[in-house]
Amino acid sequence: MAKVNNLESLLASLSEQTAGEDVSVRDMLNAVGRRSYGPILLLLGFIAISPLTIIPGTSWLVALVILLIAGQIVLGRAFPWVPKRILDFSFPRSALVTGVENASQYARPVDKVLKPRLAFLSRPPFISLSALVCIAAALVMFPLGLVPFGPVLPSLTVLLFGLGLTARDGFLLIAAAAGQAGAIYLLMRVWSALPFG
């Protein structure tokens, strides 16, 4: 298994380390490494903006797993744990491959700007703050999941946090926090437009 340290290596691992007509959450976690929080959050953010979310309920499932993973970071758990029922959840691999192919054109330009900077933000105790923002992003994804393309901004927030933690890029973590502020603003606008808002 190749070490996931940026977006390009994540996409390569998902493409090369999975096979068959269906791919489970377990397969994808095994492809990126199940003992590191950064690559897992990066994977979850990618899934949340990929064609996999066309499948009903996927956005909420991803949000639930993000809550679970980020919560374990806050609690200081050394390695992430995911329930077997979630690990066994499967998707058509064709949707995953389509997502990988669509994202490949952006991977190299994104990875070029990644570098270790403000690395202390990717270590305790600051990593807990990042996890709290990921929790907020996941919570926002639930109501925005009812709006077409609504979960994209909070999903990008989680993806950026995963990239920042994986590459030890504190600047990206700050950008991700700004993205979450935008997601909360979007939720407030959507809520105010509702008849009872």
Structural summary, described in words:
This protein has 197 residues and is mainly α. The chain has nine helices and two strands, in the order αβααααβαααα. It has helices at 7-16, 25-32, 37-49, 58-74, 84-87, 93-112, 126-144, 152-167, 170-193; strands at 22-24, 90-92. Strands 1-2 form a two-stranded antiparallel ribbon. The longest helix is centred in the C-terminal third of the chain and has 24 residues, at 170-193. The mean pLDDT is 86.
Helix count, DSSP H or I runs of 4 or more residues: 9
Inertia-based shape: globular
Strand order of the largest sheet: 1-2
Mean pLDDT: 86
Summarize the structure.
With 197 residues, the chain is mainly α. It has helices spanning 7-16, 25-32, 37-49, 58-74, 84-87, 93-112, 126-144, 152-167, 170-193, and strands at 22-24, 90-92.
What key phrases describe this protein's structure?
single chain, 197 residues, mainly alpha, globular
Secondary structure layout plus pairing:
Elements: H1 7-16, E1 22-24, H2 25-32, H3 37-49, H4 58-74, H5 84-87, E2 90-92, H6 93-112, H7 126-144, H8 152-167, H9 170-193
Antiparallel strand pairs: 1-2
